[in-house]
Structure formats: structure tokens, C-alpha cells
Amino acid sequence: MKLRTAGEFKPIMLLGLIWGSMPLDPLINKINGRTKRLKKEVLLEKKELNLKYLRVLFGEDYFVNYLKIPLEYVEGFKYYGVENEKFTIILKSKNKVTTEFLLGKLAIKYNEIIACENE
To answer: Which of 24, 38, 67, 92 is the 20 to 30 Å CA partner of 54?
Structure first.
């Protein structure tokens, strides 16, 4: 909502200066960086919602026992998942079977990363 209120500056808006109808908020927000900051906040909120949904779908036991993610790395793996654009698209589709399949693939990669870091 804040982002929509702030408005996004588009160069075509400069034509509004000629007729005196250009909204100033988008221009001011572009200059002071508010719009960019708000876009980052929206992205962060989406990631947080995806994390919550992931926690609702799967308990810690699933990550530890089925995906073989060490307990101390489970939260990191969840963040790793929501950073993956393909995974977030599948997660939003609410197709649990496909989500589980992709989580399995991500878990293999994540466990390889952990193994390399611990060598």
C-alpha cells in the first residue's frame, strides 16, 4: 500500500510539467530514494510470508529426517529455499507434491554446500 501511495516516477510524467498536472510525490520519492526502499520492503515482506507458509506446510522433522538437513541448518535451508525464484513460484501454487519435489532437489544442493563449508 505504501508503495502504491508513493507512486513510481516515469519519465513521461515530465510532460505533465507543461500542463501543470504532474504529481510531485513520485518525483520527490524518486529523488530521495523512498520508492526504491519501499520496493525492497515489499520484496522482504513477500519472503517473510513465504517462510511462514513453508513453516506451516512442513515441520522441522520433515527437514531433518526426510531431507537430511542437519537441525542447526534447517532455518538457513528455509531461507535458501525462499531465495530461489523457481521455488517461490511453486510454493505460491500451493501444490504440495511439487513443492516437496523441488525441496528435495534444493536439499541435495544445500547439503553439498554444507559439506564443502565443513571440509
So the answer is: 38
First to last CA, the chain: 47
For residue 84, the 8-state DSSP code is -
Of 2, 55, 58, 56, nearest to 29 (Cα)? 2
Q: Write the Ramachandran bin of 94: left for phi over 0, alpha for psi from -120 to 50, otherwise beta.
A: left
Query: Whole-model pTM?
Result: 0.67
25 contacts: CB under 8 Å, gap ≥ 6: 5, 6, 7
Q: Mean pLDDT in runs of 10 for the chain (119 residues)?
A: 51 53 58 68 83 92 95 94 92 90 95 87
